[in-house]
Design goal:
- The chain is built from eleven helices and 51 strands.
- The protein is mostly beta strands and about 1000 residues long.
- The protein has a domain of about 70 residues: Sandwich (Immunoglobulin-like).
- β24 and β25 form a beta hairpin.
- The longest helix has 23 residues.
- It is globular.
- The two termini are about 65 Å apart.
- The relative contact order is 0.12.
- The N terminus is likely disordered.
Length: about 1000
């Protein structure tokens, strides 16, 4: 009886305890929003402070978690200030997070995908959110970051939709190698197969194969971390000497399935066009506009030629899952009608990611991606193969619509249609509509990616992770030319059908350790990686005259572009070119961070690479160390409540830039008709990789309750062991030899300041200003280059590197002057031109701006949002061969005004307008001209972006919102000096930025952006 009574009491007490415990634990849910934008935040970490009880917000910004009344919830999100809420008796806790560029506790994705707290970093690393690239979209998503980060310079190619962009951190470092940063997606380096030869001469017409950025759906991006310095990217070794761009993509969230839909539609029109004269028509030659006055004003043929383009960028994503299984799927497409007639671009992107938990501590994820890009009549700068030359140079007063509708006529001798134009014998000048229909470049690109990882949490402090990704790119480039194209150079037509293939297999294994002992903390990672890349291309190229007999002609019928129509095919492989390449890079690396009292941090890292490009040399191995430290003074010295962060940091690192393949052991090449050619360059058996020595110091501060943010960084880099090709001694029988020499120095600073003001519950303002300064100096070059090293030459203008000079120094051809500085005339009354040897040319300045800045503002009132971005640069020079050619052909406004005035006066000396401009301007693409008169200041300030949006809350139900925004990009210039857009680039290679040779004009875009989540 007593035993029963005892059990009854015990059971009663247990029941009371369980009831009390249950009463103390309850479910809390809520919505987390961006305080500034009012939009739901996806992937916010919601945790019970001091425990491992945590969850994340879903794609609608909602969360659910089990808590007790005494618990404190912590809310953390990249780029936002942390927030804490005491639970109490509340079951619904909605939170709004404020933006902060350097918020305390912010998790930053660093090299190798390692996540670190932002305040512990010993180098500069800026994180921007997905909103920075998907609110006002660009077809190449990286272009949306223009002006938004100090030290980041982005220059799109003048090839329009699907083209590459030149990306630069902290100046040009490599003379012969790449200056582009490494692109990393979800911690894994991507295959970078950007072509650097979009423009190899004044002629132009080469292909732009795009870059990896143009294959990314901006709506898939969760965040981007910019690792600008060598210390930040040192763990990637030989492929990251120029910094790295770390892209983190979205993934599935636990909870219900969420759907997000976005649609961005814009109209594009030319932002700037040349100024033409409309008074004087063609002369006796029927080509140049140096004739008599017209009876009536001529049309502006450039305006007649361009059309209003439009682009639609659509995306839909689905995400969901449980705690043990999550999935994310998205589809995006882009369709564009360019400003150039007959120009179309379309792309499709499919992306899927799944991750699941196996056993208790094993996590597996898998991803697959496919992208297809199709481009027709993509713009290409240069004199040849460019419809803009005909649109700009057509003689004033012609019947434009006639040549537009009748761009071809029948030729009975050849039995086919041929070009119809005012002059069909000039290679640089053709009917633009013939080019668009009969010299049509077509690109079809496919890119496949498959990857996965497995992670095992061995203990709470130790885990091991393995990753692998395979990528393959395929492109078919067709550029056939019908008979009579290019000044009748191809009398029977030309076939060009090329295929390009690239593969990359990457794998790594990382062991991570994280532990805290009292005031001390240690975070360490060690691992190994390999990268295997392969490229191949197959070219079909054939042309010739009408076939009569072997050795007399090659083409049977005009305009039939199949191999069977040609007696013999011609190979495009030049001496030293490789049809197939293969390269391997193996590495081991380690990094460790020691922390003391969460206030003092010391970073150490090291990497050793083995590159197959160094085969046959003394050592295939090279070593890169890095060291850094940071101190959070506000945690060591009391500074008051208004100082939230007061941090000093510094780092020193050495990182490499790998060398091209086959330099240490040049290969024989196979030419036409089976001819085998020996290499004409000496084997470089002492080859070493370039090495960049970098020092960086900086300060980060957050003040006034996280409303004011300030960051400053000073850096200095010296890139040594530059890779040069120089002339070989005549007696060697070789044309060139390679050497390692030189020292290119970049030093400068980056600064940003931000302010967030919450005026009341409905109205807030956020502003951020960033500025950067870079000074480049060629400290050393190489012996034997008395006239410097020419890295680019443009029809009498040269980009020349000299010891003591700077990367991008521009030298131009000039007119002859007497001792008094007056222009000299010859017997015909023309100005006398100097030669184009470097000792006769004039230094015209440097083509790179020293100062770049951006100023962004966002105003939020209730559900309205207004934002704008102003950016610009100071300094630099721009060379416009377009303006020179317009003058030489007599179609520019300048030549019309000069003829109205009856003379051209230069430094007090009078010239006949036609004699002056035909001599100093460009009348033929093979002739040099007085480039000194066509160099302009690159300084400019523009309204880069403008957006006005409104969010319709709960339009389709609770949490189902629609956001509509009017958007604009490249609206207008506040100031510029150049007649073209000063931010111009003909390609991503070295020495081609700041050059305008009939480049596609920059576009001004206006449109509507819609976002729907449910």
């Amino acid at each position: 009886m007593q035993k029963r009574s005892f059990l009854t009491v015990v059971m009663f007490l247990i029941g009371m305890f369980m009831t009390g415990a249950y009463a103390q634990t309850h479910t809390v849910s809520g919505l987390v929003k961006d305080k500034e934008m009012g939009e739901p935040l996806v992937g916010v970490s919601v945790s019970v402070k001091g425990t491992k009880n945590a969850t994340m917000t879903d794609l609608n910004g909602n969360y659910t978690i089990q808590t007790s009344a005494k618990d404190v919830l912590e809310f953390k999100y990249v780029g936002m200030k942390n927030a804490e809420e005491t639970v109490g008796n509340r079951k619904i806790i909605n939170v709004s997070l404020s933006p902060n560029a350097e918020s305390l506790g912010e998790v930053v994705v660093t090299a190798m995908g390692i996540k670190r707290q932002s305040e512990t970093l010993t180098y500069s690393a800026q994180t921007v959110g997905g909103k920075d690239v998907n609110d006002i979209k660009s077809i190449n998503m990286i272009n949306s970051l223009q002006g938004k980060s100090a030290g980041l310079q982005i220059t799109p190619n003048s090839t329009g939709a699907g083209g590459s962009s030149k990306i630069l951190f902290r100046g040009n470092k490599s003379i012969s190698g790449s200056n582009q940063p490494l692109i990393v997606i979800d911690g894994v380096p991507t295959m970078t197969n950007t072509t650097t030869s979009q423009v190899s001469s004044d002629y132009g017409g080469e292909r732009d194969a795009g870059d990896v950025m143009s294959t990314i759906n901006p709506d898939d991006i969760a965040s981007i971390t910019l690792l600008k310095g060598a210390a930040a990217s040192a763990l990637y070794g030989a492929v990251a000497a120029n910094g790295a761009i770390m892209i983190t993509t979205k993934q599935g969230m636990a909870g219900k399935v969420s759907v997000n839909v976005s649609s961005n539609t814009t109209m594009e029109m030319p932002m700037i066009l040349p100024k033409f004269q409309d008074t004087y028509g063609a002369g006796a030659d029927g080509t140049f506009s140096w004739g008599d006055k017209l009876a009536s004003a001529s049309k502006n043929y450039a305006k007649e030629f361009f059309r209003t383009g439009f682009t639609t960028n659509n995306s839909v994503s689905l995400a969901g899952g449980s705690e043990n299984f999550k999935a994310y799927f998205s589809y995006g497409n882009v369709f564009s009608h360019g400003m150039t007639p007959e120009n179309t671009y379309r792309s499709h992107n499919l992306n899927s990611k799944v991750d699941f938990k196996v056993l208790d501590h094993v996590y597996i994820d898998f991803s697959a991606k496919y992208s297809n890009q199709y481009s027709k009549n993509q713009a290409a700068a240069g004199y040849l193969w460019n419809p803009l030359t005909g649109a700009y140079l057509a003689p004033r007063g012609i019947d434009w619509n006639y040549y537009k509708d009748n761009y071809e006529v029948y030729d009975p001798a050849r039995g086919c249609n041929v070009q119809n134009w005012t002059n069909t014998e000039l290679q640089q000048y053709g009917n633009p509509y013939w080019m668009l229909h009969r010299q049509t470049p077509i690109s079809n690109r496919n890119r496949y990616e498959f990857g996965g990882s497995i992670k095992w949490d061995i203990t709470p402090d130790v885990n091991i992770q393995g990753r692998m990704r395979y990528e393959r790119g395929e492109e078919q480039f067709i550029h056939n030319a019908y008979a009579s194209s290019v000044g009748n150079l191809y009398k029977m037509g030309r076939m060009k059908n090329n295929r390009y293939f690239s593969d990359q297999l990457y794998g790594d294994v990382l062991v991570n350790y994280n532990h805290t002992w009292g005031d001390w903390a240690l975070t360490a990672t060690a691992g190994s990686s390999f990268t295997k890349t392969k490229t191949a291309h197959v070219d079909l190229w054939a042309e010739g005259d009408q076939f009569k007999a072997p050795g007399d002609g090659n083409v049977y019928y005009p305009n039939i572009f199949t191999p069977n129509n040609y007696y013999g095919n011609m190979s495009t492989l030049g001496n030293g070119d490789a049809m197939n390449t293969e390269k391997r890079l193996n590495a081991v690396f380690a990094t460790a961070q020691v922390g003391f009292k969460d206030a003092v941090f010391l970073d150490l890292s090291a990497r050793n690479d083995w590159s197959s490009a160094l085969a046959f040399t003394e050592s295939c191995s090279f070593f890169y160390p890095s060291v850094g430290a940071s101190v959070l003074l506000n945690k060591l010295v009391p500074m008051g409540e208004q100082v939230n962060l007061f941090k000093f940091r510094g780092s020193y690192s050495i990182v490499g830039n790998d060398v091209p393949i086959y330099m240490s052991n040049p290969r024989y090449t196979l030419g036409g008709s089976g001819a085998i050619s020996a290499p004409d360059k000496a084997a470089f058996r002492t080859l070493k990789p370039e090495k960049t020595h970098s020092i960086e110091v900086g300060f980060d501060g957050t003040f006034l309750n996280n409303r004011l943010d300030f960051s400053f960084t000073y850096y200095k880099t010296n890139t040594k062991n530059q890779f040069f090709s120089v002339s070989a001694p005549y007696e060697s029988g070789l044309r060139n030899r390679y050497v390692n020499a030189g020292n290119v120095q970049n030093q400068g600073f980056e600064a940003s300041v931000g302010w967030h003001q919450q005026f009341n519950a409905d109205f807030s303002w956020s502003t951020n200003f960033n500025i950067s300064y870079n000074e480049n100096k060629i400290k050393e070059l190489v012996e034997g280059l008395e006239n410097g090293l020419t890295i680019a030459s443009w029809q009498g203008a040269k980009v020349v590197l000299n010891e003591g000079g700077s990367y991008g120094d521009l030298y131009v051809r000039q007119i002859k002057r007497d001792e008094a500085g007056k222009p000299v005339k010859n017997a015909d009354g023309k100005p006398v031109l100097m030669g184009d040897n470097i000792d006769e040319m004039k230094y015209a300045g440097n083509m790179n701006a020293k100062v770049n800045f951006g100023w962004s503002n966002t105003f939020h009132y209730k559900d309205f949002t207004l934002s704008f971005l102003i950016d610009g640069k100071f300094g630099g020079r721009v060379l416009s061969a377009t303006e020179a050619t317009l003058d030489g052909w007599g179609v520019s406004e300048r030549t019309g005004n000069a003829r109205n005035a009856g003379k051209v006066v230069v430094d007090g000396v009078e010239f006949d307008p036609q004699l002056w401009y035909t001599e100093t301007g460009s009348s033929n693409f093979n002739n040099s001209y007085a480039t000194e008169f066509y160099v302009y200041k690159g300084t400019n300030v523009r309204m880069r972006e403008l957006s006005l949006g409104y969010t319709f809350r709960n339009l389709f139900g609770n949490g189902k919102n629609l956001t509509a925004a009017l958007i604009a990009r490249n609206l207008f210039f506040f100031y510029k000096d150049a007649p073209c857009d000063p931010d111009v680039s003909m390609g991503t290679g070295n020495g081609v930025q700041g050059v305008d040779i009939f480049n596609l004009p920059s576009s001004r875009s206006l449109g509507l952006n819609l976002k729907l989540n449910f």
